[in-house]
Structure formats: C-alpha cells, structure tokens
Amino acid sequence: MSAITRDEVAHLARLSRLALHDDELDQLAAQLDVIISAVAKVQEVAQGDIPPSSHALPLTNVYRPDETHQGLDPDQALAGAPAVEDQRFRVPRILGEEA
C-alpha cells in the first residue's frame, strides 16, 4: 500500500499553486512514497539508546586562536595606491555634487 496517494499529491499541488499534469502526479506520488519509506527506515534506526548529535564526529573549538598583529602604517597602506592626496587614497569623483 502506498503511503501517499495520487489525490494527496494533487491536493498538495493545489495548496502550493503548482500546475501538475496527470503523469506528473503519478510520478510524484511514487517518488514521495519512496522518500517517506526512507524516512521511516531512518526513524526505526534512531531509537532511544542513540543520543542525538549534530555531527558524526565529536568536534571541539575549530576556530584559530585570536592573535593580534601589527597593522599597516599609512605609508605602507598607501604604497600600492595609484593616486594619493593628503595621506588618503585619491579616487575619481563619482557624484556631480561639490564636497
């Protein structure tokens, strides 16, 4: 016996506002039946003696240590700039307004 019927798929399609043809309804009913069966098998395996987990392997802090580093001084930061003015990057004006 199928877990989901063609009529149920048609009902879900109407609720989702999907226009499905008859052959698509039959195909989706069979596919959803396979999916529901697979989920049921997983639920059988995951009984009460197996603790829930979010990862297959135990994880600890996976972040790198937070270390401070010396930043760039203004001369180093501006060394590769194509144009510099008053220790700032000089860029072309993109707005027609006066500053």
From TrEMBL:
Record-stated family: Belongs to the GatC family.
Species for this entry: Halostreptopolyspora alba
Keyword annotations: ATP-binding, Ligase, Nucleotide-binding, Protein biosynthesis, Transferase
E.C. numbers: 6.3.5.-
Reactions catalysed, as given in the entry: L-glutamyl-tRNA(Gln) + L-glutamine + ATP + H2O = L-glutaminyl-tRNA(Gln) + L-glutamate + ADP + phosphate + H(+); L-aspartyl-tRNA(Asn) + L-glutamine + ATP + H2O = L-asparaginyl-tRNA(Asn) + L-glutamate + ADP + phosphate + 2 H(+)
Taxonomy of the source species: Bacteria, Bacillati, Actinomycetota, Actinomycetes, Streptosporangiales
SUBUNIT field: Heterotrimer of A, B and C subunits.
A Pfam cross-reference name: GatC
Listed name of the protein: Aspartyl/glutamyl-tRNA(Asn/Gln) amidotransferase subunit C
A GO BP annotation: regulation of translational fidelity
GO terms, molecular function: asparaginyl-tRNA synthase (glutamine-hydrolyzing) activity; ATP binding; glutaminyl-tRNA synthase (glutamine-hydrolyzing) activity; transferase activity
InterPro entries noted in UniProt: Asp/Glu-ADT_sf_sub_c, GatC
Keyword field contains Isomerase: no
Role this protein plays: Allows the formation of correctly charged Asn-tRNA(Asn) or Gln-tRNA(Gln) through the transamidation of misacylated Asp-tRNA(Asn) or Glu-tRNA(Gln) in organisms which lack either or both of asparaginyl-tRNA or glutaminyl-tRNA synthetases. The reaction takes place in the presence of glutamine and ATP through an activated phospho-Asp-tRNA(Asn) or phospho-Glu-tRNA(Gln).
Organism domain of life: Bacteria
GN (gene name): gatC
